[in-house]
Amino acid sequence: MFWKKRRKLMPPPRAAATESTNRVFSAFGSRKPKSAQGMAPDLTLLEGSTGNKTLVLGLSWKAVVTAGTQSKTSRNAALKARATHMVVAPAILGLGRLTLKRADNLVSAAMLAAQHARDGLFALRLPDERVWLCTVQNGKPSGAELIMDSIADAIERLRQIKDGGGALSVYSDLQHVPGGAELLAFADLMLIPPGTWARVQPVGAQSLFKRIPVPVQVALGLVVFGLLGYEVYLQQQQDDKVSQSQAKRLRQKEEGQQLWTAVIAKELGKRAHHLDIQKLFDSFLPLPVQLQGWALQNAQCASSFANETKSWSCEASYSAPEPTTGKFFAPNSKVNVPAGFEVEYLPTKALKLTWQVKHAATPISQDALETVNHHLVQTASIVQSNLSSLMSTSDIKFSAIQVQPPKSEDGLVIDMPVNAVLLQQANISLRARFQVFKEFVALPVDWQTARLTLNPGDRPEIVLDMTGAIYAK
Length: 473
What we know:
- By secondary structure, the chain is of the alpha+beta class.
- Helices cover about 25% and strands about 30% of the residues.
- The chain has 3 domains: about 210 residues, no CATH class; about 55 residues; about 180 residues, no CATH class.
- Strand 22 and strand 23 form a beta hairpin.
- The chain is elongated and about 130 Å long.
């Protein structure tokens, strides 16, 4: 008998390339279909690691006039080609030969590929380094599936197809595919639930069907046709649900990316590019150390940024002068203040001068920023070279800015897309004499606070403390 001549099935020479597949075996030694000889090609099987599905490779496909069941036309075609197994779908028939006595849960890899993409050229690598080639057009496999002996042969075949004007998208897990490819492997096909027409069925015996009377055959045919139509309807409903689910996930992904882009843009809009703060320094110059007996204690400024304007709100605190003998201090006595300052008397025998400093500024652009490494080398070098002028400084340590993640309509937090990039920020503080702080004006820092204090002593000096942020990409 024919099956006595088959080779002993051996495990593949290499381990499985993916977690979802672990065994490849072929019924015959030939690795390419014999459809050109009028015979059904030998089939190759790829078994999943769980054993609940076995992919069938190497079928030969042709168009037929059939209702998608084992009609007389399809059976005759299968028997004529000496096929042992076939896939019968609307207007298409897939044939192949398999000599295994028993093989369960057979599913056509080509039909799963057609479920994945309506049109495309598939080139997927087997665990033994062979490559399966299949063409899908209009949602159906086309021509004969090929099992190429090596990756090099498969790449050359793909190049020939491209050079011949082939415009189909390529789905593959091979490298250096001509024209590029969308990543897909057998492990991905294993995850696709097989449709109604993806099952591979044995051709079966012919005698039993012939013994059924013609009227019964007609009746059974009507029943089958009705059930088939109902199954097509159910399958269409299922496909619609899957399509709607996929469309919903895609829409949610796009909306999530848009929401995250808006959140990041909002955070960038709160921060300004580094600008020359000489205007702020100049506002300190007319500030009197002594104001008609009132002594300057400190001055501090805090910045805000909005509408492309950097605003500094500043105030200077003065202590009351000591009253002369026999006289009391009059808190409401007026003092003359320089132009641009507002005076406010406090009930605690203190006086406060306030003033505003404003200048134009632009929100930061992430693309225009320097990298973290640049600041850790160049900016840190400027600070270190002027350490002798500083009383104190902080380390430059970068971290991603904290943002409030957006939420979906259901109130669920949307995960940040993998391609989203958060701004990097390092806080910095410097303390130095006011007269030498000009050496640090050129630092790429978004200064945010400033505090001026007067250190008493034989040689009083004015000290400036400033804090800000350095931004990087």
